User: Fold these one by one.
Assistant:
Number 1:
Amino acid sequence: MERKIYDEDHEAFRDVVREFVKRYATEEKRKQWEADGEVDRATMLAAGESGIIGLSVPEEFGGAGMLQDYRFRSIVLEEVIGAGQGSLAGAFGIQDDLAVPYIVHMGTQEQKEKWLPGMATGEILGALAMTEPGAGSDLRGIKTTAKKVDGGYLVNGAKTFISSGKTADIVVTFVKTGEGNRPDAFSLLILEDGMEGFEHGKKLEKMGFHGWDTAELSFTDVFVPDANLIGGKEGLGFIQLMMNLPLERLSIGVAAAAAGEAAFHWTRDYVISREAFGERIADFQNTRFHLADMATTVDVMWAYVDRAMELYAEQKLTAEEAAKVKFWATDREAELLDIGVQLHGGYGYITEYPIARAYLDARVHRIYGGTNEIMRDLVARQIVGKR
Ligand SMILES: Cc1cc2nc3c(=O)[nH]c(=O)nc-3n(C[C@H](O)[C@H](O)[C@H](O)COP(=O)(O)OP(=O)(O)OC[C@H]3O[C@@H](n4cnc5c(N)ncnc54)[C@H](O)[C@@H]3O)c2cc1C
């Protein structure tokens, strides 16, 4: 079904992304990123140069100024994931959906001037650290503290599962600056690589997304200057997270739709080319019914996700609507990839095939950014409240 959200500027940008993918996202590079557990900096710099990252950074700081227009980011996800390069798409997303928005939307003028130009070029890579060994879904249960001292804060604690935790130059870090777990007891601080007492721990071995790192972080009396308090005011951290989470969840929904569509294309091409019992796999009725279902699911997914992108552009995408998109799209993605793997037979299990990698990558879409159970709970609260 024809999608209606793109205009000529978007399609011209798609050509830029395709060119980038052809030149930089080669199979050789993919294998290198997976072996290293990270995308090399030269590729991130090339993405900055091509304008593929830093899309939401305002033009005055060297970005594309696409603050509320997620369609350009969607094109990056569609093209990069469609080329079987899920890890590269993830590395771009950590920068553009997790780190950059906090500084663009909530940073002080000084913070914007200091970090945004480098984030647009890829010279400065960011990460977002909320989760701790003892607190993920229940973020108000975090234990990392930031104690006020003269000129700044002393940070102590630990974070885990942090995407780009090893490679990031700056980490937007969720900390406790007050007592108890009231929303105003939390703040966001920017921790910089190299600060004394800030250790990037080991890279964690993951099921999928082998081409970007996920790491533990630890903080021992790390002095963080007042200038690194996001927004310049204490006690806003929880609200700031809540403000950005709809974007993070929309981004996962878009990635899920892109991977679901890619699953359909890879599967269609495979079943046309493969034969068994003297027929194409595509000629068996079971395959044909699945293909029809897949194609329809992809159409419905995009119709829904595209509407969410429109609402985001109008600044009307609520937390509940973003939660619905996140859990629904990632559940459909899982179904599409599962049937895609099945129709590939044994080859579907071999990670040389993009369908196998995408299947492994997709599993975390139902876990991070808020688990799909938490998403359903959020939606249910709006429907029936909570005692
Ligand atoms: C590869 C990867 C990358 C990640 N990247 C980042 C990152 O960059 N930054 C970051 O901060 N975090 C990151 N995370 C962490 C991720 O966001 C958390 O793992 C996730 O939010 C779940 O938290 P948890 O692991 O503590 O699970 P828990 O909260 O312990 O949940 C365990 C199970 O209980 C269920 N559950 C919990 N509470 C409820 C409830 N109220 N009702 C019903 N069910 C419930 C959950 O849905 C889940 O099924 C990443 C995780 C992974 C695996």
Number 2:
Amino acid sequence: MLTVKPLIAFEDNYIWLISHHRHPYIAIVDPGDGERIVRHCQSQNLIPVAILITHHHGDHTDGIAAIKQHYNIPVYGPAHEKISGITHPLTEGGRVVIREIEAEFQVIDTPGHTPGHICYYGHGLLFSGDTLFAGGCGRLFGGSAEQMQHSLEKIRALPDETLVYCAHEYTIANLTFARIAEPENVAIGLRQQQVQQQRSENKATVPSQLRVEKQTNPFLRWDNPLLIEAASNYSAQPLTNAAAVFAAVRQWKDDLD
Ligand SMILES: [Zn+2]
């Protein structure tokens, strides 16, 4: 059975460590801080066996070199982004087999936050990088709203039970916006209370269940009539397709940030 634990880096980054309960090995997702991981592995007697990268931003990749100085391990990452140290470039449909932790992940192309962003899915777990956040989604730094909506549509098609491991603790701010976008959605208010409680106890609000995201994350709800109406009002024009609704909601949040 796989276990996933976070290492917190910088202000609010989660570096995910995937392990198998029978083995001392770990796979590392998006190591922004390499020294921190090396220290953790040495003190916990863990042996890194693979690095998985979702996109090129430094807070997800800057630790690759430091880890590679200590451990000569494969580095999986998006084929369509320029990232130093990648040994196994991946695109849609690619597979990552990590024998040491008995894990296999499938690659989903998810352009939008960046043009070449990928996610990893397997064992009911989704490592979504900066594409889908708990209660939100990544900003558009290079990809278009159409691309991002299409990427999120692929994620939305995964099973409800999927656990979403995103790379940042942004949930409170995301749900504050969700409440503004969908004031009548009771599930958002309830989730907001839960998340505030978790954060007051210094607990991570990640992972979240995809079912909950579908109910409360406005960036997965482009076909909800009330959200379509609210987004149309915000952009002062009737929005008639999913990408346009998504684009308006993304713009709305950007304007408030
Ligand atoms: Zn990013």
